[in-house]
Please model this.
Amino acid sequence: HTYSGYENRVATNLEKIVDNRKMGHLIHAVKIPTEKVVEPDGKEEERKLFPSYVLVKMIMNDETWHVVRNTSGVTGFVGPGSQPVVLTDEEVEALGVENVVVALKYQVGDVVRVIGGA
Model:
């Protein structure tokens, strides 16, 4: 959780700390869930889905907890006793913040069988 309007600053600060401390193997991604909205006047705008929240994909341990918790602008974690709550894969997918790339082993001209779909 961050102060309202500080999400981008917190994400940038945390990414810099991760780079400086070479913690990329522990803190994998910092995301601010957004959506594109077209206003009635035709202007396209990007809005935060969860204002004041930054999502962090990390391996939870004392070191990563300390780094995130002490990043400037972070006010706390969502969860009991300020301990972060781990999101399930289904919850992350529902949020739409993590794109999954699927590698397919076929090429143009290959024969395929469609077994499902709409």
